[in-house]
Amino acid sequence: MEKEIVSHQDQDSQTKQHHLSTLLLPPHLQPSAPSPVSPLSDQVYSQAAAIFQQLQVEKPVSHQLLTYAKKTDTPLPESGDKATKQRAYQLAFNTLKYQDLLENVISDSCFHTSQQICKDLLPLAMVMLFDFQDRKFMPPKRLPQEGQERIQEVRDLEKSLQKCKIKLAASLARYRVKQNLWSVSCYLSDSVRTKHHRAKCLPLYAWINTLKTSVNEVCEVFKSAGLEEAENMTDLREAAFSRDPLCPDTLVFSQHLHALLQYSAFTNTHVLNIQDRSVCVAVSVLQPLLFDKGDVLVVGFFSAVTVAHIAVVAAARSGRVLVCGSDHAPSQLEEMQELLRQMEIKNVRVLSVAFCSLDEWDPAVQRLKVIIVLPQCSSSALNDPVNAMLSEHGDWKLLPDLSHGSVSKSKLNSMTTQQARLLAHALTFPRVQTVVYCTRSVYPEENEQLVGRVLEKTHTPHKLLPFRVNGPIFPGESPSGDTTDSKFFKLEPSHLTNGCFIARLSRQADPTKVETVQDVLARAVAKGLLGDIIPDPSKTNKKTKSKKNRATSAPSKPSSPSSQERLAEAVLGNGPKQQWTLSSG
Questions:
Q1: How far apart are CA 134 and CA 168, in angstroms?
Q2: Fewer CB atoms < 10 Å away: N or C end of the chain?
Q3: H or E element: which one contains 421?
């Protein structure tokens, strides 16, 4: 009988393994999937030109080599599929990095005057020239693509660039000699150039939907498909993957596997979810903090994938995820609801209010125990901000600053004001035990300095433990070089990962102060931990006063442990009374 049961289990395992294997399809079996290195479409050029026009750095008239059309209040392009939008923003961002160089090439070669390029088309000329020189002035090998409309302005300008390519290449060569540039990328500052090169080889990170399968099962499928599992992230090769040492549900893949992952059925069915590591780490921090049947509130700017990831983690503890719907655009909420429907996730609740209008009395937050704050930030810890901004709804207006390696003081001040507002409000909920604050910034003004400033100004009611920085978040140092100090976690940007900053704030007693039994019990009553054993003092105040006179006339008794002290021992243990504290758990 036992052998029969084992054989059935093996058969079920093989059936499940076969089902998972069918989800991993090579790119050539996905006919609708475009190649990530295919020539840019007319739509990409057109959108990139509109983005560059809105974001390009305006110079004083005396320093202008080209005169663009005046900027308008038109919103940045949001139309088109995700792949087109990503490539358009990437092209515009690269053009911003080389704006001065490209303007010099166009001006020196007289391209705009000889080809009669009007100022309305100069942004298009700039983005197309960047792509043209990036291809070593070779014409693109275009393949006929169905459903893509041809844009005549783009085709005409492409012909003009081809016609003048010798003059353009000569002007670029002269500029490089004059500036002593060994390569075009040497034009960039050291910090921007380093990030530019890192972004090209950055590994891919993808978390596994553990509601559908396990990490081990997915790893076995990849190994059966011919991929090698590397022991460490630093050992990744072309056809290899590894497990993330900080995120137990996340796998790391070589950049060479981008097409395989992006267009496989594994990803299309959301068994595997590609996401930046800076977000995966923040979600990983939440895992040991969640309470059984407790809620976690997600605050700030984040994607539908982030909400789904937190929901999967919370589901393991029968918890819910709350989102303040008024803080997000209708299109973002629709995207979120559609993804949750596809993933069959049902433990997410969208509240109708904005976060800063939410208070402790709202019935929706009575089970709230954890808040994760993901504010809009400078994105200065990202090697390539475009992908992260696109997926996590970042601020595109930061791209001009990031293209030169730093963010202006005025923009930093504006962001830190909003960051402090969100974090301060998160600390006002009495039932919340932990607040996780995460940015993708390298600036102390957005990170440890802001956390310290907010904590100093936070008022804690007498009966509650105050919030304090609770670290270290991850013990020791990981093989990938991620470091942590005694208080905060900082993931430094490198060739392996984008960076982030994480602070975990938990309710903790001040270790320098000694608490009395009465202080401990008062907090326990306030939290409702003792039920009806000790009633609320505010409800029994009158009864206490009426018995006071009778108590003073009663004969004195030898001192002995009071009922409150005995109760405190039962609740908190039998340690020395002067060391009693009530933990945040």
A1: 13
A2: N
A3: helix 409-426
